[in-house]
Specification:
Blueprint (H helix, E strand, L loop, with lengths): L3 E4 L9 H15 L6 H7 L4 H7 L7 H13 L11 H8 L5 E4 L4 H10 L7 E3 L8 H11 L6 E5 L2 H10 L3 E4 L6 H6 L4 E3 L2 H13 L3
Parallel strand pairs: 1-2, 1-4, 2-3, 4-5, 5-6
Helix pairs in contact: 1-4, 5-10
């Protein structure tokens, strides 16, 4: 049934949560943004991205510049982060069955560095620097490039904004609960599938590939 699987990177493949918080706190101190406690950060996991920005008083116009700065800070430490336990096995299991693509708001250089450090060669393409709000444009481009209907693609991601983007295009999404956004927040956004473990994700992907076998 599916002929292409598109993965998010941070919080889906790479366990960059602690590093992202470290960078956020450092940037907060530098730019006068409120420095959040661990409890406040945990509460943020339940909020959509726009509400998070409002909570820390960051105007939307400043987001692109802050994202570029964060990419540079992450570049220095991305090699020390690890894949989530079990996700590499999933990638190896589905590699070669359908094309695999990464679509992320992180910079492609950071993603490729991570892939090189961990000897991950499962992906046919890495698309980085996607906009924080809305991945619809690059997803539409992928549909055109691979000449696929939305129902023939599965997106895998850990955030509410991934669900919103895929729902706008009619693309099924497997949301994973081991990333940044809390499971209860993901469930409220009504993803196609909600997976708690990489093993569940593997089964969900393979079952949808086999339907077309």
């Amino acid at each position: 049934m599916i002929k292409l699987v598109v993965f998010d990177f941070d919080g889906t493949i790479a366990d960059t949560g602690a590093l992202s918080v470290e960078i956020f706190q450092e940037m907060s101190r530098k730019h006068g943004i409120p420095v959040l406690s661990a409890e406040e950060i945990e509460e943020m996991r339940k909020l959509p991205i726009r509400k998070r920005l409002k909570l820390v008083s960051v105007p939307l116009r400043k987001v692109p510049k802050l994202m570029k700065e964060s990419w540079g800070m992450m570049k220095e430490k991305i090699g020390s982060t690890q894949p989530f336990e079990g996700i590499v096995d999933v990638l190896h299991r589905i590699q070669g069955k359908v094309p695999l693509v990464i679509l992320s708001s992180n910079h492609a250089d950071n993603i490729n560095t991570f892939m090189a450090v961990h000897n991950l060669d499962a992906f046919d393409n890495v698309i980085g620097a996607a906009k924080l709000f809305g991945k619809e444009k690059p997803l539409r481009k992928l549909l055109k490039t691979y000449d696929l209907a939305p129902s023939e693609v599965l997106y895998v991601g850990d955030e509410i904004r991934d669900i919103v983007s895929t729902q706008k295009l009619g693309i099924p999404i497997a949301s994973v609960s081991w990333g940044f956004d809390a499971k209860e927040a993901l469930a409220l956004a009504d993803p196609t599938i909600l997976c708690d473990t990489p093993a569940e994700l593997q089964d969900a992907i393979l079952s949808r590939i086999k339907k077309d076998a």
